[in-house]
Amino acid sequence: MSGYSPKEYWANIADDFRSADPAGIAPVLHPGAPAWFNQLIDRQQLHALRRALALARIPPGARSLDVGCGTGRWIRRYEQLGFRAAGLDVTPGMLKTARQCGTAGLLVAGEAHRLPFADGAFDFVSDVTVVQHIPAELQPAAIGEMMRVLKPNGHLLLFELIRGRGPHIFPRSPEDWIEQAAAHGAALLGWFGEEFLLPDRLFVRLVQSVSGGNGAGPKPALPGNSKTHARSAIRNAYWRFRHITASFSAWTDPLAEKIFPARYATHGVFVFRK
Predict the structure, then answer these.
(1) Domain with 128 in it: what CATH number?
(2) CA-based nearest residue to 189, from 54, 64, 62
(3) Residue 130 above 90 pLDDT?
(4) What pLDDT sits at residue 138?
(5) Total domains present in the chain
């Protein structure tokens, strides 16, 4: 998209939200959202990641690469699982925060569509909500690079948006993500939907339809000098109510997954073997 630079966008996020929380979650999930919301989403994603790792059967000692590692939350978890973990991110500010958060693995600055690693260097490569932020025309190259640095029989995890759109998100349908990986020699082991959160999504959509906001909180048209104070009060009320809808949604997600097709989720988690 014209005017959008992933490197510049994430550099600004890293600068603005570096101290938002000690775990470095805010810069890589929902900057500006309350801590409880990012922690909820992080728990959802961690559960999905564990499920994907079980499907791939990654053994301890495997050499792993997290592409778009951000503040290093997955590298730290991979290290806890006994992997020899490395991470790459386009933003030096994110990597600085990763070190401050205790990430001990190899951290490299670079771009997903031209990875600075040799062919077959890794047993396992993960991409958690990263390629979705790369302009669509560069996404095939990024997936191709991840496949290139995998060893034969190595595993690739793609965890990406399958619905929605925005100035800096470029999702694909499940079939399209699978096709992009298959074009580079990946064999699908399985995939599942992640983050249904249906009541919460309904609430956000209702707020958007009324206020014209973007889901980060309502943005009503308010006159006079009271505008800032009133918006703050409405935003606080929005997040108090959303605390209920999001928590309830997370609790009911296992049931939603059994009832609804995987494509009803916001994300798809895809596990491939080279």
Answers:
(1) 3.40.50.150
(2) 54
(3) yes
(4) 94
(5) 2
